[in-house]
């Protein structure tokens, strides 16, 4: 079972790279182990955000296709 998100962000319609900037700022507000939920557009956002957060050292717990949007759960890894 996936953990409940601590923060949810709806970034549908937010262009790259602003969607990653907003994701990064939201992760900075979380404690290690907390989960961020994102709603993203298909295409570049759902391809780029998971890769970018992994490069930052965080864990992508799930990527779910909601049909027209994607739901990501990202766990913040320690500082």
Short description:
Helices cover 29% and strands 29% of the residues.
Structure description:
The protein is built from 2 helices and 4 strands, in the order βαβαββ. By secondary structure, the chain is α+β, with helices and mostly antiparallel strands. It has one domain: TusA-like domain (Translation Initiation Factor IF3, 2-Layer Sandwich). The protein has a 4-stranded mixed beta sheet, covered by helices on one side. The longest helix has 12 residues, at 44-55. It is globular, with a radius of gyration of 11 Å. The model has no long low-confidence stretch (mean pLDDT 96).
Task: Indicate the mean pLDDT.
Answer: 96
Overall geometry: globular
CATH class: Alpha Beta
Beta content comes to 25-35%
User: How many helical stretches?
Assistant: 2
The chain-level structural class is alpha+beta
- Helical residues, percent: 25-40%
pLDDT < 50 runs, ≥5 residues: none
Largest sheet: 4 strands, mixed
Number of domains: 1
Radius of gyration equals: 11 Å
Which architecture per CATH? Answer: 2-Layer Sandwich
Query: Span between N and C termini?
Result: 25 Å
Number of strands: 4
CATH fold call: Translation Initiation Factor IF3
CATH superfamily: TusA-like domain
In the sheet with the most strands, the strands line up as 1-2-4-3
Order of helices and strands: EHEHEE
């Amino acid at each position: 079972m996936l953990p409940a998100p601590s923060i949810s962000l709806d970034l549908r319609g937010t262009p790259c790279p602003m969607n990653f900037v907003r994701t990064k700022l939201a992760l900075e507000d979380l404690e290690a182990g907390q989960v961020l939920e994102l709603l993203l557009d298909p295409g570049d956002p759902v391809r780029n955000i998971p890769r970018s957060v992994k490069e930052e050292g965080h864990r992508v717990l799930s990527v779910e296709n909601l049909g027209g949007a994607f739901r990501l759960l990202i766990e913040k890894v320690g500082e």
